[in-house]
Amino acid sequence: MNNGYYRTTYRRIGFPKPHSTIIVIILINVCLFIVQILLPRIIIYHFALMPSLIRSKLYIWQFVSYMFLHGSFLHLFFNMFVLFIFGQDLIRLWGSKKFLSYYFFTGIGAGICSFLMTNIPTIGASGAMYGLLLAYGILFPNKILLIYFIIPMKAKYLVILFGIIELIASITSRADGIAHIAHLGGMLFGAFYLWIMNLSNRKKRFSNFIT
Q1: Could you confirm whether 126 is annotated as catalytic?
Q2: In the 3-class helix/strand/coil scheme, how is 132-189 assigned residue by residue?
Q3: Cα 97 from Cα 14, distance rounded (Å)
Q4: Is residue 70 flagged as an active site residue?
Q5: pLDDT tens-digit map of 59-81
Q6: Fold of the CATH domain 22-210
Q7: Which residue, 66, 70, 149, 186, shows the most beta carbons closer than 10 Å to its own?
Q8: Across 18-22, 113-117, 121-125, 202-206, least confident range
Q9: What are the pLDDT digits (tens) for 29-53?
Q10: Residue 97: strand, helix, or coil
Q11: Which of 180, 183, 200, 207 is catalytic?
């Protein structure tokens, strides 16, 4: 199968050709999920975000490693699906380097929020996914998305909807197994990153103008 046919096939079924950066992240997550199934206790203990271990043993790498573990196949699938859908346009706009810096910034930020505000072990890339959702809604506000593949909604309204849902859930939900604080943390750190990026771009434009 030649590359031209490959690209045409992807356009025909409505999906963009996956970027290599997206593929690598997905493969890492899938491989680590398999290792997690084989060695659950060891992997969770050392690489999930465990507030007690971070405080007592300084397992600070867990702020990164927790992003690559997942509680179930569905948890993994939906996070990687969100990465695939929203990551494509963001990578085309930013490039891989800036995309990865944003991805890890929001993921680590989500972990920090979970660490500071809860004492519950956390796993999953959902915080980074909510960061991607926020960026997508801000940078592609009028793009139509299908909620559950059925309900059409502009990206900017989807961000607002999900933000409200997570805010309410973080206040009202008790022990539902979902890291709502991490989700909100991913959006919060995403907003901060985009604000700094916008401020930097304005300074560059002003500098170019006066010179």
Answers
A1: yes
A2: HHHHHHHHCCCCEEEECCCEEEEHHHHHHHHHHHHHHHHHHCCCCCCCHHHHHHHHHH
A3: 26
A4: no
A5: 999 999 999 999 999 999 999 99
A6: Rhomboid-like fold (1.20.1540)
A7: 186
A8: 202-206
A9: 999 999 999 999 999 999 999 999 9
A10: helix
A11: 180
